[in-house]
Design a protein that fits this description.
This protein is mainly alpha-helical and about 325 residues long. It has 16 helices and two strands. Strands 1-2 form a two-stranded antiparallel ribbon. Helix 3 runs antiparallel to helix 4 and helix 15 runs antiparallel to helix 16. The two termini are about 20 Å apart. The relative contact order is 0.12.
């Protein structure tokens, strides 16, 4: 399999176009400012990797090559939940841009941004309830609890150079992988009652989500603001110590002094990133992401290889090679 993959959604192209149209209808709000804030988020675009993966899974587990209306709706709900979490993340991280455009709290204010995020969570909950499937509601509702747990863990470990890789992975699960894992499980619950299949795709989503977060943390140190669509080095600035730095500390203990000083000087972030790049920290983090992708892909190859899995495998590998 070529790991230098490009995104390809040919098999679900129609469903993805429909998803974009439906998302705009689903965020309708009576108050113009609230609507404007929500619309701003979805107009910013994004690759929609999460709903695309869900739609691919929906096709993968059926013999009819069809996706039900309920499964399409869950893919839409997942994207709304993800977008709502970004609004709150941007406030906590004081991020000025997202996907190359001004963030909601920067365009309006923190209060409007909090309300916009809450509104999106509320909308997702309403549509989730209308699926009329209490088991799926339970699975997806857990995600929002996990978001809060992840933020608390990140906050309590701020500027803590003793954070372990295990702590980092746990926090990354709550903040990122939980949504993908539970959504993958939910989409299968709407298509089959076989718990083995549901658990397979939960694990697939978990490993995919962890790889995605690790790569995101690598890009925060190796990419530019233009490519990221948000300021580079933001994790360090906010005291969020990630895999590349954790691995680098064993080779560059001098970084600890800069962490303890909370990168107080303007050049400390650049200096720290430069020191990390002189170690094997970034490569070790990439190896960790690769390990999680391989675990995810193994599930597909081992049990679902008789199906048309090319697109979902390419999308999985894309996560390792995305540039933003």
């Amino acid at each position: 399999m070529n790991t230098h993959a490009q995104l390809s959604f040919k098999s679900i192209n129609h469903e993805m176009q429909q998803l974009d149209q439906n998302l705009k209808k689903m965020i309708t709000a009576e108050h113009p400012i609230l609507y404007s804030a929500a619309e701003q988020l979805f107009n910013a675009g994004g690759k929609r990797i999460r709903p695309a993966i869900l739609l691919m899974i929906a096709k993968l587990i059926t013999n009819k090559d069809e996706i039900s209306d309920e499964q399409k709706r869950l893919a839409e709900i997942t994207e709304i939940i993800h977008t709502a979490s970004l609004v709150h993340d941007d406030i906590i991280d004081d991020c000025e841009t997202r996907r190359g455009i001004e963030t909601i709290h920067n365009m309006f204010n923190n209060r409007i941004a909090v309300l916009a995020g809450d509104f999106l969570f509320a909308q997702s909950s309403w549509y989730l309830a209308n699926l009329n499937n209490s088991d799926v509601v339970k699975v997806i509702s857990k995600v929002i609890t996990d978001f809060a747990e992840g933020e608390i863990q990140q906050g309590t470990k701020s500027f803590d150079y003793q954070i372990s890789i295990e702590n980092y992975i746990e926090k990354s699960f709550y903040k990122t992988a939980s949504l993908i894992a539970n959504s993958c499980k939910g989409i299968t619950m709407l298509g089959t009652d076989q718990t083995t299949i549901q658990n397979d795709f939960y694990l697939y989503g978990k490993h995919l989500g962890l790889a995605f977060q690790i790569m995101d943390d690598i890009l925060d140190m190796t990419s530019s603001q233009e490519k990221l669509g948000k300021p580079a080095g933001l994790d360090l600035k906010n005291g969020n110590l990630t895999a590349p730095l954790i691995f680098a500390l064993a080779e560059q203990p001098k970084i600890i002094k800069l962490i303890n000083q909370e990168f107080e000087n303007p050049e400390d972030i650049k200096k720290t990133i430069s020191m990390i790049k002189q170690t094997s920290g970034i490569q070790k983090a990439k190896d960790l992401a690769t390990e999680h992708i391989q675990l995810a892909v193994h599930i597909i190859n081992q049990k679902y290889s008789k199906k048309n899995t090319k697109e979902i495998l390419l999308t999985s590998y894309y996560i390792l090679n995305r540039i933003n």
